[in-house]
Amino acid sequence: MIDLHTQKITLLGSNVKIRNLPIKQVSLLEEGSLPAYGYNPGDHIELMAGDVSVEYGRLEQCLTWLAAYIAESDLNPRVHTISYGEQKDIFQIFRRYAGTAKIPDDHGWFMVNQYLPAGARVNSTEPFRIDDSNREIFSNNNGLIVIDDCGCPPHLTQDDFARNPEAWVIALGISVAHWRTWAEMCGERITLFCRLADLETTRMEMDCSVNWETIVAMCLRALRTEEVGLWNSQTRKFHCHIIVEMFPHGILYIGPKAIYFRHRKGCLPEKSSPRQRGSVPCYDTLILAMLAMDALRFGGFTFSRNYFYDFSQRVMQNWSSLSQHGYYFRETLEFPNLDFAKSYPGGYSCSFVDGGYDPSFFELPDFSSDFETTLDLVSSQIWSSEKKAALRKFFYLGKPSPMCHEVPLAGTHGYLDEIVAVLYNLKEEVNRKTGFHNLPIFNVGHLRTTDPAEIDPVITLQNVMDSYVSKENVQRPLCIGVFGPPGSGKSFAVRQVAAVIAKKFQGDPFDFFEFNLTQFSSPDEINSAIEPVRAAVARGKVPIVFWDEFDCRYEGHEFGYLRYFLPSMQDGVTYVNGIPHYIGRAIFVFAGGVKASWEGMEKLLDTSKPEMLEKMKTLKIPDFMSRLRVVLDIDGIEVPDNLLRDSASPAELEELRRILLKRAFIIAHQMDTHWKKAARKTSGLLLRLLLARYKFGARSIEAVIEASRASDRIVYGLPELIAPSAARIHAEWRVELERRIDQLRKNKGLRAVW
Length: 754
Description:
By secondary structure, the chain is an alpha/beta fold. 33% of the residues lie in helices and 21% in strands.
């Protein structure tokens, strides 16, 4: 039995000295008395905001976190620290983030730059070894924490660990090249901490993924490679525990018996700290200290589902506080000071109990042939219908869909279950704003989806647009292709992406223009349309120009206008009377009207049809396609009749659920926009809107809701809907299906409840 009050742990880390410099920007005119030193009076210069603070690497950071946690607990372990190697000097520049107005004046300092010592990370000195001078410290420990920042981790042997038979080990910063040795030596006694960047050495292209499914799949595939050496192919298990941190929104645990993952609800991966804000460099040592506290409490690692559910929740909470508050400043920079009572109420962990379904927490299945096939597809560098299907089921393989956790009909009525479940969520959302609470929803502005295959290209578009707008110099407009059925939300998606990017600037940097090429009578009108675009650039705006139905007919040919866009797409110029005019920084969005998908465009270049291919070359379609930088396919919202049958397959039911959810998001948004939020909406009304055959997609949903507005009502029901004589423009009601569902709900006793 371990005595919780007499435990001993040793922290071993590289010899690093970090100097933190708080910097502020000031105006010479405002300061007045400052010497100019060659600056003009109106210039802004940077000054020290306070004294330089010093901390001794991540070793001291971890010790600081650990001491704070111990102070809040009833534990009293003996803690020893040893540093090794030649001293490395690191300088970190901190600034106060201007966007932290809600945070007190002494908070909100973030690292914006880091200067490392010259030369390689690995020094020429011998690795640290245990000898007579330190053998007593490295004996009879209950825990060892190793933090390596030099690329040359301590050389510990089996004899060294034999002198610490009860010790658990936590390692941070050890390079991938040494993982196999440590894992084979310590087995399940060790937890290796790593970042996504550590796995880039496995050539898994960790930085190209924009959704959690792909990142987790890439991590698993990378960690199972022979190069890493943590996977036992015979037992089909990992040798040790691994935690992959994805600050600030995700954390992954991979172990011999289970794989768990949590992300912050509604948040997508961040590749690096935002340029405008900076980072908090002590976030990784925080979770080391948290895990060490739990290991002290429990006498080792207990990575059960309940434990990691709790641990990951506490990590997300503390990371949120860190990323919001940053470092403190009182005359000099101070280490972040969190409210540890939230993480350890009463000094104990397990403050969060797994009370049921959590849309942000996942337990992945054991490695099987089905899971490995899905894993390979999700982590692959392709984009196909097979990969989309794999993305959608990756976190739910062998488990019910997230929609199945609230099935009012108990899952016994096929496609009717899906309709009633979505109806239930929609009614709770429009009336109480809680209907979508337990769904794995991701937002880009007002664009909401539960589909990772839908959000992936949208986030890619956001990243490309953000990068383009932030560049100092550009040569040509950024050209984007957007495809989808009429009313699928092509322009809505682009506008929401632009709205998210605009929040990073003090004012909205964008101007929007929309031109429908079917209204043009000649190519000269393209040049005329570009003139106000150039004027917007001259005003300092970034115009986003929608060229709707770019694939319409001109001179008897589909895509007849494309050739006239090529100079502006490639060279950034438009010609008026033979004179070139530079366009400047602009975003051209080409929205398809004839072709509903990028795949339809690619089929035009089918090499098995040489005559068609030659014609497409004449129309300059390959030249046009080669100038696009991003392509976005938007799925429609029409519900095919083949999905509404009793014999629908599981895959068809999944597709029906996805379409109905997309409709539900649109209906909820339009009701918030056009109807009184406080008014109650009846199930009959919502069911009709959910099931209708819409002729023009989301545009028809908006038209029906807008035309049905009744501002003096406190309850909206079927009588408030637009009359059939007007509704026929946009929708056809599925009345028979509505009656069947209504009768089923009545028989099940649901209609009287909701």
